[in-house]
Amino acid sequence: MTVRRLLPLFPLPNVLLLPETDLPLHVFEPRYQAMLSDVLAGERLLGIQLLNPAGLPDDAGRPAVFEVGCAGEVVEHESLEDGRSNILLRGTFRYRIAGEPDTRTPYRVAEVVPLPIRPLPAAAGGRSRRDLRRTLAKSVERLADSVGRAHSRSLPPELSDEGFVNEALSRLGLDAEEGYRVLVMDRLEERYDWALAHIAGVQKRLDFLAPFRRPELDSRWN
Length: 222
Hints:
Elements: E1 5-12, E2 22-27, H1 30-41, E3 45-50, E4 68-79, E5 85-99, E6 109-114, E7 123-124, E8 127-128, H2 129-146, H3 161-170, H4 176-183, H5 188-209
Parallel strand pairs: 1-3
Antiparallel strand pairs: 1-6, 2-5, 3-4, 4-5, 5-6, 7-8
C-alpha cells in the first residue's frame, strides 16, 4: 500500500534539493517564518519544491510547481532579528505531490507520496556497483583539480549509492532544468551515467581552454 503523508512546502525558483545533500536557506517571509516554527515543533521536515514557470496558477492563485520534490530535515537553525532565520537542510527523500488540501496555515501543505529509488545493479554492461562509484570519484577528483578546488576532490565514502552521486552533482552548480532532470530519475544507474557524461563534458571544455589560460589567474575564473 502506498503511504501518503502531509508535508509543508517551500516553493522556490531555481532551487533544488537532492537526498543526502545540504542546502542553506535564509527564511524571512512571515508565512515561511510561521512554517519554520511549526516544522521545528514537529518532525523538522519540509518539502523543497521547484516553481514551474511554464505552469498556470491553481484555483487558489498559488503559483505552479513541478510535481516531484525533495523533503529536507532542518539539521541546523540560527534565529536572527525580527523572526528571520538561517537554516541548513539535509535532503532525506524524494516524493511526488498527490494533492494540496485546504488548510488554515499561511503556507502551502501537500499530500505527498515518497518515491523509491531503483538501486544500482550488482553488474550492468560489465560495470559493477563498485566500478561506477570508483569512476565517479575519479572524475570528481580530476574536475576539482582542474578548477583549483582541492577541498572538493573527495566524496564522502560513507554515503549511500544515491547520496554519492547526488553529492557529486550538487557540487557542479546544476541549473534548475538539469537539477530537476536528475531529481526525477528513478534508476540510480541512469543517474550515474548522466553524472559521468555531464562531468566529462565540463572536463572536455576545461581541457580545451587550458592552453589559453594565463598562469597567474585562478582557473576558477576562466
